[in-house]
Amino acid sequence: TKPGEIDPNLLSSVNITLKPIPHNVRPAITPRPVEAIEGIGPIIGGRLRKLGINNTIDLASATPEEVVKAGIPAKKATEFVKMARFLAKSELAGVENVDEQVAEVLVISGKIDSKEALARVDPEELYKRIKKSIDTGKVKVPKTFALEKEDVNTWVNSARLRTGITKPE
What we know:
single chain, mainly alpha, DNA polymerase, domain 1, elongated
């Protein structure tokens, strides 16, 4: 051997044992009651529940027109829906390729309000729900918005990686 080179005859072998490290999975997030939204107390919360709007994800998925049916002024109904959508969208931060537009689509059409909820959904079923919501106009998207099954798979798989949840419920 030349100076500075390692003689392969002088190398020894090393045995390495790899042990899996348990991954702590966060418990499922329970939906927050509508009263979690600033300005909604027990009276308005009760009226919303009579309409089937029981939690913040229901409120985020509703239209202001639906919320007005609870006897809430249109301006306030719009504020409540916006706050619920903002809350839900913030829970989706960090999921691959989920920007504000995608988060809104997930919240309104898929009733997905957290990484955990996204990780537990079947991608094929979510794709169908989103497509139907776009086709029927329930959710408004720019003309440039293109929904592909592969995108939905990416979102779900990214959420699964971040939460440790490996399969749909």
